[in-house]
Structures are given as structure tokens and as C-alpha cells.
Amino acid sequence: MLAVKDISKSIGGKNIIHPVSFEVPEGQFVTVLGPNGAGKSTLFKLLSLATPPTTGSITINGKSAKDKSVALRKEIGVISHHTFLYDNLSALENLRFYGQAYEVKNLESRIKEVLRYVGLQLYIHDPVRTFSRGMQQRLSIARAILHSPSLLFLDEPYTGLDQQAIQILNDVLQSLHNEKRTLFMITHNYEEALTLSNRLLVLAKGSIIYDDISTGIRSDEFRRLYLQLVGGEVTRA
Ligand SMILES: Nc1ncnc2c1ncn2[C@@H]1O[C@H](COP(=O)(O)OP(=O)(O)OP(=O)(O)O)[C@@H](O)[C@H]1O
């Protein structure tokens, strides 16, 4: 499903990601943890096709990441700090814009469905500039799943969310996981990670230093292990 072979990234002569290789089978929910500056966001940008690797290759559902086709873009959804929303457009208009770009079938009913999913159906006609940070984050989740991607990338999705929005996000992620979609999440929030995901990667200084199935690990056990691996404090988003 996602195959990463020897990818590295150097910026301005500095090696930020050392060659890393791993495969993520269909339906797996992978979380990447690591201290500040480990290279998580850079890895995220590489995998979500926002920036090309310096070396190595990425293959998504058998398609090379070098192929910039709409077909490849349709395979992935991205939730990051950047909401990719237009302030002056309403929730409906934003989703129409993306839905048309991704050639979503039965777009109007799919838009209503995803807005219900994230609890924003009452705000369908409101401009995004009137939305709180958490509401914008919810709408960016709706945008990212609108075209039913088989692979969803999430970079610190919990930042700025209230308890209700965290619950909505967790429910959405759980449903996507149950639907056997593949999820790849970067977070500092290891408690959510342990509850939801079934594989943990720890990145430090641009290298993967831990890669294991997470099912059944208690949070205090993992916290101890993590501190042994990277030292310092485990931070929460
Ligand atoms: N465009 C860039 N130019 C130069 N250095 C960069 C650039 N982007 C990232 N870096 C450096 O690469 C390293 C990894 O950064 P990255 O943002 O990927 O880490 P991170 O694990 O996401 O950190 P955080 O948890 O703080 O968000 C850092 O030392 C950072 O300064």
C-alpha cells in the first residue's frame, strides 16, 4: 500500500532525514512520535507528496510518487497545520471546490455526509472566516476525507481541538480504521496514539529508532520506553 525505500532529505547541505525504508500494509494505523526537531514534519511532507525526497522512492498503491497524476492524488488525504481552506468561501463552497477538483461522485450528498460526520452540518453556509480554530480543523478533516482516500496523512491533528472536537476526530479515525483505510499520523500525543493506532514508529535525528506493533502496550510502559529511546520529556500536543 505505502512502500518507502531508502528515502532521505537534505536541505541546504544538512541531512534532515537519513535513508529510511519501511512498508505500511493496507488498513494499518501508524503513528510517528519523536522529539522536537527529529524530522517528523519533513518525513510527513515527503510521504504526503508535498516535497520530493533527495534520494529514494515512495510508492502508493503501486503508483510511484514521481507520478504527479490526479489518480495518485486521489489516493491520499492530508490533514496538517495548513487547513487548505478559503476564508471567504462557506463550508459548502470549500468542499465543492475540492470535490470538483477530485471528481467526487454524488458530490452534494457526499458533502452533507462528511459535514454531518464532523458535526458541522448547521454551519454549511457560513464563511470559514467566522469559524473558530477547532471548527476549521473539523472542516479540514471533512475536506481531507471528502474523496474517500485510501491513505490518510495527519500531522499533529489534535492541536487546538477542544475535548468534543478530539472525540469527533477520534471517532472519525476509528471509523476510517474500521473501514480498513490506512492512516499515518504524526503526533506528540502518545496516549491517543496508543489507543488508536496499531503500529508505532519513533523518529530521532532523522532516523527511525523504534518500529513495532503497538497493540497492548500500556501508556506508562510506553512512556518509560520512549524516554529510554530519546531521553527528555514526552510532550503533549
Ligand atoms: N526548510 C528547512 N531549512 C532548513 N532546515 C530545516 C528546514 N525544515 C526543517 N529543517 C530542520 O530539520 C530538522 C527537522 O525539522 P522538522 O520540522 O521535520 O522536525 P519535527 O520532528 O517535525 O519537529 P517538531 O516536533 O518541533 O515539529 C530541524 O533541525 C529543522 O531545523
From TrEMBL:
InterPro entries tied to this protein: AAA+_ATPase (IPR003593), ABC_transporter-like_ATP-bd (IPR003439), ABC_transporter_ATP-binding (IPR050763), P-loop_NTPase (IPR027417)
Q: Which Pfam families match?
A: ABC_tran
Keywords in alphabetical order: ATP-binding, Nucleotide-binding, Transport
SUPFAM superfamilies noted in UniProt: P-loop containing nucleoside triphosphate hydrolases
Q: Which residue ranges does the record assign to the ABC transporter domain?
A: 2-230
GO molecular function per UniProt: ATP binding; ATP hydrolysis activity
Give the matching CDD domains. ABC_DR_subfamily_A (cd03230)
PANTHER family found in the cross-reference section = ABC TRANSPORTER ATP-BINDING PROTEIN (PTHR42711), ABC TRANSPORTER ATP-BINDING PROTEIN NATA (PTHR42711:SF5)
Family indicated by similarity: Belongs to the ABC transporter superfamily.
What is the protein name given in its UniProt record?
A: Sodium ABC transporter ATP-binding protein
Species whose genome carries this gene: Desulfuribacillus stibiiarsenatis
